[in-house]
Structure prediction request, 622 residues.
Amino acid sequence: MTTPTTPTPGPTSSTATGTTPDAAVRRRALAPTAGVVAHRAPGGALARMIAVEARLMVRDPSVLFFALLFPAVLLTVLGLVMPWADLPYDDSDPLLGAITAITGYTPIVLSLAAATVAVSTFPAIIATYRQRGVLRRLSTTPVGPARLLVAQVVVNLAALLLAAALAVASGVLVLDISLPEQPATVLLAFLLAVLSAFALGSLVAARAPTAAAANGWGMTLYFLCLFFAGVWLPLPLMPDLVQDIAGYTPLGAATQAMTAGWVGQPFPTTQLLVMAVWALVGVPVAVRLFRWT
Amino acid sequence: MSTTPVVRAEHLRKSYGTTLAVRDVSLTVERGEIYGVLGRNGAGKTTTVEMIAGLRRPDGGTVEVLGLDPTTQAAALHERVGLQLQESAMPDRLRVREALDLYASFYPDPADPADLLDLLGLTDKKDTAFKDLSGGQKQRLSVALALVGRPELAILDELTTGLDPHARRETWAVVEAIRDAGVTIILVTHLMEEAERLCDRIALIASGQVAAVGTPAEIVTLAQGEQVLRVRPHTPVADAVLLAAVAGVPGVRDAVVEDRALVVRGGGTVVQDVMVALSRHDVRAQDVRLERASLEDAFVSLTGTGTPGATTTPPTTPAATPTTAPAEV
Prediction:
């Protein structure tokens, strides 16, 4: 098995390309930087990653809608369409009876906003990056892939805060919901809700091998979260047992704690502790379980 | 400094569970060369370069790259080594220029992204999203990203897999341009033609071991050790004159005249020596054919495993490609 060839010189003939007119461009573009020890602006890469991830999120219409607009749209539509919106939230309780049902639904929507971003959007993106080798590709650079996770959390957190602000703003402006009796409690409960929801999402993000897997696991978890958060049936209408269970899930506790702060019930210590535990346990476990490839 | 090898790997070993991916690989890459790591799919090529690049920790053996230990100094190494990985994509909606700018921000003294786009022919695609690029464009972006840190060593893994012949040759020209700029290159490939065309030296890997190391010609010689040169004179020349002309030329093992053409068998520099000898005797060639064992033949005889990637690659005979010129004029 032989093949005929003309006697061509070996690979060294390629040096001839060094004399082509754009050789200078090539040299400028490629010449190695042996021995250069420059000081990179710390965080320069991270800042750029955050900017890039934000741009990518804005370019994805479905993510943009669900992460940013869905909570506000849901609250507004329910408030305008549902006949129960302006009825008292819960007649059997003096405090809950003093607010409208749509005001009572607002903490639920805030829980939904947290769950949508943290449990659905965030793990799906991370799993996609893992599946497609984006994380692995970054591990070949001096920066490494960990910063991409930080950038993702930052961008998702920003989206979530914006979504929550939009929801509350549209509730106040369009539906005339009443403002929280104890804003600090509501804010604290919301922040812990975000942390615990991200802890939950991180567990999915840590292990899901593919985007499809992340979607499957994330969606299951998401709908469980929504159920316990009271999206379909507000908590006061649920059986006591379900309410008790909900109080130990991140977003069930979140809804209960935010509602307590909203109407001026006693400080929701248990629910806040539940969320703190979810965050304090979930995040380190996710970090430990995290797979880069 | 310039005499220190860029890569010195000794007796590397790596297994995944019970699968021994790399049994015993030693190789030395010198500064400024294109070093081919050639072998069929699953031979252990990628695992080998991943250990060199500090992405995987060897189970055994030692490796030193640019004076650094990849297992403990990966971050420092990654500032000086650029990797183009098999099957690593960018986010779908990331645009070409954005990807380059992002990766440029990872390095202390990056190349100008505009220059790189120019070099890789991606300037008119700079605002195109990754998912809208062709396979060849994705590969070229991947190369650009590997080069944006202005590495001293670039590791290119299966660079042209999945590319059509035209895109493949364009990519080869880029590899040569990179080497000409002073970058040492490790080229992982299962394509004979690619290794033969680009590499200064090749390590032939089979079943996790180095089967042979040398220049493409040396590897072919190792396997077969013989070239066949067929020269048809421009004007009729007596057989005896032809044979006399090449008698005593070093490297000629056998010379006969067949069908008015001189057929010389030999090794080493026999081709040029014979042509010079003929020229001295005023014999001018109308047609010259060189028949020799291809790298593919060498591969089969050195590894005994059959053609690497035979099921996935187009014919790799040099005669099939315009760049290596038709055999008969």
